[in-house]
Automatic annotation (TrEMBL):
Native organism: Lentinula boryana
Region (Disordered): 1-25
Higher taxonomy: Eukaryota, Fungi, Dikarya, Basidiomycota, Agaricomycotina
Stretches assigned to the Dynein heavy chain tail domain: 243-805
Annotated protein name in UniProt: Dynein heavy chain, N-terminal region 1-domain-containing protein
PANTHER family, alphabetized: AAA+ ATPASE DOMAIN-CONTAINING PROTEIN (PTHR46532:SF4), MALE FERTILITY FACTOR KL5 (PTHR46532)
Protein origin, superkingdom: Eukaryota
Length: 1167
């Protein structure tokens, strides 16, 4: 401090230096000396003359070190002077010393700690503001009491006061700053010091060892060998004085050990922690004694006595001490005492922690009492001691909340939580009582009444009463408030501000400790409550007047109840309740009407009520449903009775009308008693032989014949366990045997329901297969798998499920050892589910296929229509193939046969229709072909809109022309063209079906059977081989017949070729001179003219027409020319013949005229 720091330089420029801190002035030890001389006499009771010893040569150095930054604390120690013996009138003297290092010694009566608040001591400031001082009392007693008082009465309250003054609403901030944790640590520290203070001191046992023995052991240890008698001189071993001394030492050991082993304490006195610490400390003390007894010195003493044949001192040594028995008992008792969670209760800082600690404490006791032989007779006072600790801790926490000053919501929450804590205590005590009785019975101990007197009973009653009282006050305050209850009109009635009056009445109670349950505290509470009631009674008078006004204006019972519902919060107050007794009759009549409705509801019976159907929907069994229904009616009845009692007060049934209503309701409640229903159900269950046993499956014979698979599980058992579950919820005591039966049923219920559902699904699936003939081949594999599972399950019994259930609960199935019977249920359900899914899937596909197959018989006779349907069928088959259905090849083959049958019918129909169309007459042809030509567009449009069927088929007629060219007659086109066209048309119609691709089952088999697939037929051409012989021959025969008919007709026209080919002279020479031949020729020529000498220009043959228009005129002209030539020649021939005949006749006449008659007669006649 001799020089100040230089100002810093920045960029070569000096800046104004900050003001330097003034140097710390030197602290004069004389100031501290004066302070001690003024402080110590009154604080530690020292005389100034005795204090001179403090101010030795090192005093200045100590004070300088203490005032500087290094030292933090300085101790003034007051110690007793050690004197051999004090005379009776002599006074105890003390000496004092100043030190910076604290030590503890029994002679130190008191130690004063002087603690600096800052880093250094400032001589300009009074030391009183710079130093803490703290008295630490020592001496013969332990320092636990002093430390406990410092923490509980000084440090902890000061910390709580600071936190509370900062604001209790900053819970979130406090939590972040760790304040609750600090509070807990303070509580734990306080508790630990209290435990140390309360411990029963176990006397320490130090075994006296003879110096000779001690030396011998030390020599052996120095030599590194095991001590033995060789280290003691023989003379000493046989010395009776030495042996007697050893014997006396052993007897003193026995007494000192017995002082520990026979040590006990009254558990009823003190706290629970004292009892726990006593047994734990006793165990440590006994372990210390055992360790001493195992030492080499004790062993050598025993060897010396045995060597001297003094067996009576050695043989019964352990038995006399009682060490073994005491150790055994203490060890067993400490099974209960070790890890006893009492600290959780004693260090609890809030109500939740107290509740949790109670559960922990009693769970520990109930569990350990079954293992430890700790006497129940000691356990009962231990629980009462815990009750005292519980009471103190609860009271400490509740007082810290200052209940009268807290808002009602907070107080109600705290006291509700307190009530729950008391309820938790009662529940735990009930369980502890059961455990205690059970343990007493098992230990065969003498019966003692298990009765515990809780120390918190008065506090429990006070908190309950305080909660009710504050609730009534709050209701009164709300009703007299500015915005609720009586409203502004009732705020100031009779010149009195009711709200202010109620607040002032509550101020009386605020000033007292409401949780003080002592005699004096109770008297103070009663006096305060009376003062409160006096002030509140005036407010009640005003409220009564207001209430009477409103009730007087009420027109009916509902309005009265509405008024009551508004003011019902005040009816707990006797004065207000007494003011509304006059409205009793009206209310009773109203309640009578309500009860009458309940009678009507009950008379309809449960089975016919809406509740019955709702119960079924919510899976409530019938008996439990009926009981719940009856109890609901009873609850409504009680609600009506309670409403009357709430309004009119207790004792309303003493009036005449009230008594009648009470008797009617009592009679009705007897009818609503559900016990007979339960008893009847119990009797019925006991009569039946119900149980979960037998095989898993059973075969049932059906009435109509046949058998059916079923699950061997009585549905009544399912109802039974549901009934038992609901009846237990309803509070009925179900017998143990029925409960066990229901538990067995409940264990197997999931599996039974699963099996029932699986079997039902299996049966439905089989029915589906039966109803859809044709799919059984496809689902055969899945059906066989289901049947294999059924055959596996036939040998399983329900007993396996019941017996293996418990092991399944505690043994994890993660290692793969799942119950194989449960696994069977899952696998069976899975297999049947697969069967159901596959069956439903294949049925949908099969129906699509059947529709497509049926459509083949009625669809349009076109390639597109057939291909679309077969494509749909093939797509469904491909899906079946992808999904892996079995026997698909066989099934598809059967389906293909069915398709072949339908297509064969269509082929037969098309052949018949084609034949019919082909074989139509000329008239039909003319009638049909004319509209076909005229209305071709309209018919084509109609064909697109309608399905093209076989009956709509038409064959387009062909027209052949008879033509003449180069004087040659020929047919164009030839007849063979017609035949080829007709056969092609027939083949096209047949090809619509025959060229369709066959359905295949193995389109997804990639080249595995190449050769076989090549040889297999892919179209329906082979259908043509399935016809009877005449079916397919008929169209071809018709074609040939038509061709022959055409040939014959055309041949007539071709004959006219001779008109040009023949030479006239050849014809004339051929005819010669025979007039008959000429005449026949002329006749035939005349007949032949009918072929071409007509007004028509063509000849129709149905599906074919011969057009002879072109050749008709030329043949006619040629014919006419030929006819004229032949006729003229015939005329010349005829004339010549006539001339010749005429000449012959003339000649014959002349000859006759020249002949004589005689010659004619006589001559021979020749002809």
């Amino acid at each position: 401090m001799d020089s100040s720091p230089q100002p810093p330089m920045t960029n070569g420029h000096s800046e104004t230096p900050p003001p330097a801190e003034p140097p710390t002035p030197f602290f004069d030890p004389e100031i501290f000396r004066s302070y001690l001389l003024a402080l110590l006499p009154p604080v530690i009771g020292a005389r100034p003359s005795d204090l001179e010893a403090l101010f030795d040569s090192d005093f200045n150095e100590r004070v300088t070190r203490f005032s500087g930054e290094g030292g933090g604390v300085l101790y003034v120690v007051k110690a007793k002077d050690e004197v051999e013996e004090l005379a009776d009138d002599s006074e105890q003297t003390y000496h004092y010393q100043l030190t910076q290092h604290l030590t503890y010694h029994p002679s130190h009566v008191l130690t004063l700690a002087l603690i600096k608040r800052g880093a250094t001591l400032d001589p300009t400031t009074p030391l009183a503001t710079q130093l803490h001082f703290l008295n630490l009392f020592g001496g013969e007693e332990t320092p636990y009491e002093s430390l406990h008082a410092v923490v509980s009465c000084g440090v902890k309250p000061w910390f709580d006061a600071f936190v509370g003054a900062r604001g209790g609403g900053k819970d979130g901030g406090d939590t972040k700053m760790g304040i609750p944790m600090t509070k807990k640590k303070f509580a734990e520290l306080e508790l630990s010091l209290l435990h140390l203070q309360q411990n029963v001191e176990i006397p320490e046992t130090h075994l006296t060892i003879h110096p000779v023995i001690q030396r011998a052991v030390e020599q052996a240890q120095a030599a590194g060998t095991r001590p033995n008698l060789s280290y003691i001189p023989t003379k000493t071993l046989n010395d009776s004085t030495f042996l007697n001394t050893l014997h006396a030492h052993v007897n003193s050991w026995i007494k000192s050990i017995q002082a520990v082993t026979k040590l006990t304490r009254d558990v009823a006195s003190g706290t629970a922690s004292q009892e726990i610490n006593f047994w734990l400390s006793l165990e440590r003390a006994l372990e210390g004694i055992e360790a001493q007894l195992r030492s080499d010195e004790v062993t050598m003493v025993m060897d010396c006595l045995r060597n001297a044949k003094r067996f009576h001192a050695t043989v019964s040594f352990i038995a006399d001490t009682g060490l073994k028995d005491a150790t055994d008992i203490v060890h067993k008792y400490n099974q209960l005492m070790k890890d006893f969670p009492l600290n959780e209760l004693l260090s609890a800082t809030d109500l939740d922690k107290i509740q949790e600690s109670l559960v922990l404490i009693f769970s520990h006791m109930n569990r350990k009492l079954r293992l430890s032989p700790y006497p129940i007779q000691r356990a009962l006072p231990l629980v009462e001691a815990i009750s005292r600790d519980f009471n103190d801790q609860l009271l400490r926490i509740l007082i810290s909340y200052r209940l009268p000053y807290t808002p009602y919501e907070t107080l109600d929450r705290l006291l509700s939580q307190t009530t729950n804590i008391f309820r938790t205590w009662d529940d735990q005590i009930k369980e502890f009582t059961n455990v205690a009785r059970d343990v007493t019975r098992k230990r065969l101990e003498r019966f003692i009444p298990i009765k515990i007197t809780p120390a918190h009973a008065k506090l429990q009653e006070r908190t309950r009463y305080l909660r009710e009282w504050r609730k009534q006050h709050e209701q009164l305050a709300v009703m007299t408030g500015p915005t609720k209850g009586l409203g502004s009109a009732g705020m100031d009635i009779g010149g009195m501000d009711m709200e202010e009056e109620v607040k002032e009445a509550y101020e009386v109670v605020k000033r007292i400790d409401v949780l003080d349950v002592s005699v004096e505290g109770t008297e103070i509470w009663v006096a305060a409550e009376n003062a409160y009631n006096e002030r509140v009674s005036r407010v009640e008078n005003q409220i009564i007047a207001r209430l009477r006004d409103r009730l007087g204006t009420a027109r009916n019972a509902n309005e009265m109840f509405r008024v009551f519902s508004k003011f019902n919060a005040l009816f707990v107050r006797p004065k207000i309740r007494g003011a509304i007794q006059e409205y009793q009759t009206q209310l009773i009549d109203s309640v009578k009407e309500d009860i009458k409705h309940l009678h009507d509801k009950f008379k309809t019976q449960y089975r016919y009520s809406e509740a019955f159907h709702m119960s079924q929907m919510r899976d409530l069994p019938p008996i439990a449903g009926a009981i719940i229904w009856a109890r609901q009616i009873e609850r409504q009845l009680l609600t009506y009775m309670k409403r009357v009692e709430d309004v009119l007060g207790k004792g309303w049934e003493l009036y005449a009308e009230g008594q009648k209503l009470q008797s009617e309701s009592s009679a009705f409640r007897k009818k609503l008693d559900t016990r007979p229903v339960y008893e009847a159900w119990l009797h019925d269950i006991n009569k039946r032989n119900m149980g979960v046993d037998g095989r898993l499956f059973e075969i049932v014979r059906l009435r109509g014949g046949g058998f059916q698979l079923a699950v061997n599980f009585d549905p009544q058992i399912i109802t039974l366990f549901k009934e038992v579950r609901n009846l237990l919820w309803l509070g009925f005591q179900v017998p143990h045997a029925i409960t066990n039966m229901a538990k067995d049923a409940k264990r197997v219920y999931p599996h039974a329901v699963s099996l029932m559902e699986t079997v039902r699904t299996y049966g439905q699936t089989l029915d589906l297969v039966e109803n859809n003939r044709g799919i059984e081949w496809l689902v055969a594999e899945y059906r066989n798998e289901s049947q294999r599972m059924i055959s596996k399950g036939v040998n399983i019994r329900w007993d396996h499920f019941v017996n293996q259930y418990d092991t399944g609960r505690f043994v994890s199935s993660a290692d793969g050892r799942d119950n194989r019977h449960i696994q069977f249920v899952r696998e069976f359900a899975s297999v049947v589910s697969v069967l159901q899914d596959k069956t439903n899937s294949v049925i949908d596909l099969y129906k699509d296929i059947l529709r497509a197959v049926d459509d083949l018989a009625t669809c349009s006779y076109t390639t597109d229509a057939f291909s679309e349907l077969l494509g749909r069928i093939q797509a469904a088959i491909d899906r079946l193939n992808l999904e892996g259905y079995a026997n698909l090849d066989h099934w598809v083959a059967e389906l293909d046969k069915r398709i072949e049958t339908i297509l064969l019918q269509r082929l037969d129909q098309i052949i018949q229709a084609w034949s019919t169309e082909f074989d139509r007459t000329d008239d039909d042809s003319r009638r049909d072909t004319v509209p076909l030509r005229e209305n071709k567009r309209r018919i084509d449009k109609r064909m697109k809109e309608e399905k093209f069927m076989e009956s709509h088929m038409t064959i387009k007629p062909f027209v052949h022309e008879i033509r003449i060219q180069n004087q040659v007659i020929f047919l164009d086109p030839p007849i063979e063209y017609a035949r080829a066209a007709w056969i092609k048309q027939l083949h096209d119609w047949l090809g619509v079906v025959c060229r369709l691709r066959r359905i295949q089952s193995s389109r997804y088999e990639i080249g595995l059977q190449m050769q076989g697939s090549v040889s297999s037929e892919t179209t329906y051409t082979s259908l043509l081989t399935h016809f009877p012989d005449d079916t397919l021959q008929r169209p071809f025969a018709l074609i040939e017949a038509k061709v022959q008919q055409l040939r014959e007709y055309v041949a007539k026209w071709l004959q006219f070729q001779s008109l040009w080919d023949l030479e006239a002279e050849y014809v004339f020479n051929r005819l010669g001179d025979s007039l008959a031949h000429w005449q026949q020729l002329l006749t035939e020529i005349k007949k032949a003219r009918a072929t071409f000498d007509t007004s028509e220009t063509q000849k129709s043959f149905g599906v074919c027409a011969i057009d002879y228009e072109q050749v008709q005129a030329r043949v006619n002209a040629k014919y006419d020319a030929w006819q004229r030539d032949i006729l003229s020649r015939f005329g010349v021939k005829l004339g010549n013949e006539m001339k010749e005949m005429h000449a012959s006749i003339l000649k014959a006449r002349n000859d006759l005229e020249h002949q004589s008659i005689e010659g004619l007669v006589g001559g021979s006649r020749r002809f």
